[in-house]
Amino acid sequence: MTTDSQTCPKCTSPYGYSDGTLWVCPECFHEWSLDALADEASAKFLDANGNQLQDGDSVTVIRDLKAGKSTIKSGTKVKNIRLLEEPVNDHDISCKIDGHGSMYLKCSVVKKA
């Protein structure tokens, strides 16, 4: 195994060791499998609660956002989002919000509806 697979994903301790099918961190006692790490790496677009987002999903904004001279209020529902493979200024969602028009959002400020 490589050194990367022995690094604890929770506390980044370099002392993780294999215990059968799991890896164990002796410093924080976190246990993980390499399969779970691969699944997390493939889950690139996660909302604020850790749920996987997909193109066409509906999301809800979780905090007030400044949008030019107006504000997008917390709880605003956004339908039919499009996920961007190439982020625009760290924004990874393209969408249209009623009353505000087309804009980009970050996954960290929305939750799956």
Automatic annotation (TrEMBL):
Alphabetized Pfam families for the sequence: YjdM, Zn_Ribbon_YjdM
SUPFAM superfamilies from the UniProt entry: Prokaryotic SH3-related domain (SSF82057), Zinc beta-ribbon (SSF57783)
Keyword annotations from UniProtKB, A to Z: Hydrolase
Molecular functions per Gene Ontology: hydrolase activity
InterPro entries in UniProt: YjdM, YjdM_C, YjdM_N
RNA-binding as UniProt keyword: no
Residues in Protein YjdM C-terminal domain copies: 46-113
Superkingdom: Bacteria
Domain Protein YjdM N-terminal, first and last residues per copy: 8-33
Family matches, as Gene3D superfamilies: 2.20.25.10, SH3 Domains (2.30.30.40)
Family, per entry: Belongs to the YjdM family.
PANTHER family per UniProt: PROTEIN YJDM (PTHR30305:SF3), PROTEIN YJDM-RELATED (PTHR30305)
Protein name: Phosphonoacetate hydrolase
Source organism: Halobacteriovorax marinus (strain ATCC BAA-682 / DSM 15412 / SJ) (Bacteriovorax marinus)
Gene (UniProt): phnA
